[in-house]
Amino acid sequence: MSKGISPICHSYTMRLFRVTAPPRIRTGLIITVVVSLSSLWLLMQQISSPTEGEKSPSHDSVVIKAHTSAKETTFSQNRYTHQTSQDQGDVYLIAEESAALVIVHGDEKQKDFGNQILVALDANRFKVKAVKFETQELPFLVKGGEGLYSIIIFQNLLTYINLREVDRSLIDGYCQRYKVGIVAFTGPSLDNEYSMKVGNFPLVMDKKMTLKDLSLNSESPVFHITKTKRTLSGILPGEDWTVFRSNHSTYQSIALAKTRTQDMLNLVPDSKPILHTTVIHDLGHYDGIQRVLFGSDFTLWLHYILFLDSVRFLSGGRLSVDLKRYILVDVDDIFVGSAGIRMKRIDVEAMLVEQDILAKLVPGFRFNLGFSGKFFQRGTDEENLGDERLLKHADKFWWFPHMWNHMQPHKYNSSSKMIQDMKKNKQFAQDNWIPVHKGYAVAPHHSGVYPVQEELYSSWKSVWQIEATSTEEYPHLRPSRNRRGFIHKGIMVIPRQTCGLFTHTNFFREYPGGRSRLDKSINGGELFRTVINTPISIFMTHLSNYGSDRLGLYTFDALIHFIQAWTNIQLVTLPPVETAKKYFEIFPKEKDPLWRNPCEDSRHLEIWSSKKSCSKLPQLVVVGPQKTGTTALYSFLSLHPYIRSNLPSEKTFEELQFFSGPNYNNGLDWYMKYFPGGKNNSDQYRFEKSATYFDSPYAATRVHALLPTAKIIAILTNPANRSYSWYQHMKVHEDKAALNHSFYEVITAGSDSGRSVKSLQKRCLEPGKYATHLYRWLKYFPKQILIIDGNQLRDDPVSVMSKVQRFIGIQPRLDYKHFLRYDSRKGFFCIIKRKGKSECLGKSKGRIYPPMEPRAVEYLNLYYRQHNLQLHSLLENYGLTVPDWLVKDLARPPQG
Ligand code: A3P
């Protein structure tokens, strides 16, 4: 019996959401506390992704049956059937965004393989939940009657076999009910046993085997990527293979191999060799669960694609990859390479021959050449003839512009110089009849593409009408599997992959690790896996890789032949802009960029203009919401001699509204220009305030990406009052809906009301659902948030400003009683100016308007009750102070 995975904790909810109400509101709270807890739980379930550590409230949930007649996906043995049914009765559902649950082994020695499994799944963009055996609890498997996992993977079969009974029945029950399969690998043999029965299954494992000549059973239904009719001849890597034996009809071999000693023993001529099953498929006839068991890990390259095939098959096709792969080979630095390693005439001829060969295997294949005209004819005599040959056959290739003089865009002092250089390169192309019409360009060393140098984008557009480029740098070079694309200023930026060839690898002897390492990468290793994992691969190579030992030709010829020999992958090449369009067709969610902090990545800093500096970015962001006193806080903060706000925007005044709206598309350079100052700004504490951030669905993620260490301030007032203030604000701004409808009419308007009323209603009501919005911020900044009570800011700004200064750690601290005083005419605190005069906020802040109608008060009290309860629990859970207005509000009986 294993220890380790313990049953799901029944007290989890109570542990997480402990409630400690102050005595004065305890009575009121006691009635509502249960509702509060469950509603907060629901809130968190709604907001967080299903695999982020949720727990089941009870074991029973695993066996919940979903009663539905809606769309469903069912799994039928040996093939996938995706059925839509209107009248199915009881069916079992797997959540749309289902994931793989991986139980990794706790043993340090096996950690590496556990990571390899997770990386393989992640590289294929499957959602993954990893649980470490012996230290972590089994997660919640079902939510709302839907199964959360499409496959369960055990890094070590013995973990599964030895699970505690309760966990085993939980997993098996889940697999049976939701038709989910299990993949398991045999781990290293740690004992002296050579044979063992696999738990209570009619199956025996023979261990510590050394094997050769692996063949695949083409009868198996599991194969998808893997081509079956091949034998992997020769000795299989590793000396600790496990093979499987059984007489039960539930088992079918997927892969088989001979023992290494077999040929010596097979003395009888023509006797059939004994084949041992190395990968086995349990068809589910024994206990209703399909399984694939591997007798070794990924040391054998073939297991990688067999694993992906198994995941696809056993997840009923939910965790599946398409067989089509788009591949584009860029050959950059054309003419740039130094004399001695450039292409000669004969190399150009070889390239053309190889291009024809590859085009037969990969429809549409062409080499895509990037040129810098300035370096034309700068090689040896022979190489100069090579340059001429390239031009002679220019129409046989695709061409794209590199920078004329190979200068990195971030080093240009002006965009006019950049444009001038681009035009020179264009002129060179025209003079030499180079057909550059593909709308694609690449910048030297990724400079200017990401982090963005706006001048590069605008110059590319104006000179070349560029539509697409590629980079390895977004969001970061490593891990390469997480590279992504984005669209900025009409240019599609797509991720580029690494093929292992660089400007310094021109001879086999120069290749790090030698030719055998390159071959390993191609024959099932890193390069092969890149193509398997990535639907669209753009590989960067260089002119010099096609001279010298022609490693470029060697690599792609070998790679493409290997892929075609062993897989059903269909390789295709599209022109670069079409490739980019295809990318966003496959990954439409990636279009919007997420600007990250260039100073968090040393490579990004190297390709960022020296004129830019992270010390210009704000350290504090006041996020709103609107109508809670944000302008007052902004002006009070600005009084401090060492605190500096952003410059005002022409359109949105003191608020830049960068993270919450269309300004985000202007990019980081745009944002940074509002924070001027020298490179060394250390004596200035910079902040930004935009009240639209608080309830924006994107702002928290975006702020965290760019300013991960920033402090955040949110101001909360009674949401009903906030809502009414917004209505009054819109009335002053002559909003038609506000002028023509009473506040009560607006907030109670039904779904059949006009657009303008519904839109006003939304802005009145939505921001006040504080818990929903605040939770997004707390997820990213759990320890960097200050919540200000808006009423306290209004009535006692001096003590609020002390709190704020302590929170941001500014020195020296101002005593605001010397700077603020109550102005009885305005009815608010105002700034004390010289000669004792007051400077109050403008007319639009702190206006006088009639009190809210009682029925509106009553309506809103009820409307916000749940949200306020959630807010109370949320603040308590994060150890944040609960504002007085909230305490009072919740102490009132629910019916207003
Ligand atoms: P009203 O104008 O409805 O009274 P914001 O700046 O976020 O838009 O918030 C405006 C609200 O700030 C005002 O709403 C007012 O109640 C509040 N406020 C708090 N302190 C203030 C101050 N010193 N001067 C003016 N308004 C203040």
Topology (SSEs and partners):
Elements: H1 12-16, H2 23-47, E1 66-67, E2 74-76, E3 79-81, E4 90-91, E5 93-104, H3 111-123, E6 127-132, E7 142-143, E8 146-154, H4 157-161, H5 165-178, E9 181-185, E10 195-197, E11 204-209, E12 211-216, E13 231-235, E14 241-245, E15 251-259, H6 262-265, E16 276-282, E17 291-294, H7 302-314, E18 324-334, H8 345-361, E19 367-371, H9 381-392, E20 398-401, H10 415-431, H11 454-464, E21 468-471, E22 486-488, E23 491-495, H12 514-522, H13 526-533, E24 536-542, H14 551-566, E25 570-572, H15 576-586, H16 602-606, E26 620-624, H17 630-638, E27 643-645, H18 668-672, E28 685-689, H19 699-706, E29 711-716, H20 719-732, H21 736-740, H22 743-748, H23 755-765, H24 770-780, E30 785-789, H25 790-795, H26 797-808, E31 820-823, E32 828-832, E33 838-839, H27 854-877, H28 884-891
Parallel strand pairs: 5-6, 5-8, 8-9, 9-17, 18-19, 18-24, 18-25, 19-20, 21-23, 26-28, 26-29, 27-28, 29-30
Antiparallel strand pairs: 1-4, 2-3, 7-8, 10-11, 11-14, 12-13, 12-15, 15-16, 16-17, 22-23, 31-32, 32-33
Helix pairs in contact: 2-24, 2-27, 2-28, 8-9, 8-14, 10-11, 20-23, 24-27, 27-28
The chain binds adenosine-3'-5'-diphosphate.
Adenosine-3'-5'-diphosphate is lined by residues 626-632, 691, 725, 728, 793-794, 828-829, 841, 845-847.
